[in-house]
Design a protein that fits this description.
10 strands; four-stranded mixed β-sheet; 34% helix; alpha/beta; six-stranded parallel β-sheet
Length: 212
């Protein structure tokens, strides 16, 4: 894991990178990047919980578009509002040393906002998610991120039961290989490489193991 190389390549790809030693430094940094009262929303993320970002979003400091507990049309409208917010918060399933972001979603509101919509995207990422390249990123999701997230979300999938994607039983599993469960969380696969809108995506790397 080469943190400096990762940050340098993120910058080359038009993705602003920040580095903090501890999770306690994340919220103070975010307050310098997002003005009080601006509209914010988030994708589901254990990392945001662990770093106190969710507490900040719920504190009244920002205009928080919160989808917690919503269903049906109310939930859909919250997603649409989030798509146009000032700042969208999330983590990343993996960050490569080549400066790429790899994210896999089921519902896919998170990857939609990463790609386009919010004025800026702030990702909070533990160094445990840094991988060498996209191939390692794909493997990381199949072995770690997806199985743990299915347990967190109580999804009835093979990886929730066994702890790994069934595609790993193949000699050479492909990115999109997986199960046929209706609750599958691996539906849309997004690689963010060189960005046309420089510094719209910001990555805060934390020198701790965080999230899945």
């Amino acid at each position: 894991m080469d943190i400096k190389k990762t940050m340098d390549n993120l910058e080359k790809n038009g993705i602003k990178s920040y580095f903090v030693e501890t999770k306690e430094e994340v919220v103070p940094l975010i307050k310098t990047l997002v003005n009080k009262g601006e509209s914010v929303s988030n994708g589901g993320s254990v990392t945001l919980q662990e770093t106190g970002v969710m507490d900040l979003l719920n504190s009244g400091y920002y205009d928080f578009i919160d989808r917690t507990g919503l269903e049906g049309e109310e939930l859909r409208q919250a997603y649409i509002r989030a798509f146009g917010c000032d700042t969208f918060f999330c983590s990343s399933n993996a960050v490569t040393e080549n400066g790429e972001l790899y994210n896999v979603d089921g519902n896919s509101n998170r990857v939609a906002c990463i790609v386009y919509g919010p004025r800026q995207v702030i990702m909070v990422v533990g160094v445990n998610k840094i991988v060498k390249d996209i191939n390692e990123a794909v493997k990381r999701v199949k072995e770690k991120a997806a199985p743990l997230n299915t347990k967190r979300l109580s999804c009835k999938t093979p990886c929730e039961a066994t702890g790994k994607c069934i595609s790993l039983n193949k000699e050479d599993p492909l990115m999109c290989d997986g199960c046929a469960s209706p609750q599958r969380v691996c539906c849309n696969y997004v690689v963010s490489a060189r960005q046309r809108h420089k510094d719209r995506i910001k990555v805060i790397l934390v020198n701790e193991n965080l999230g899945y």
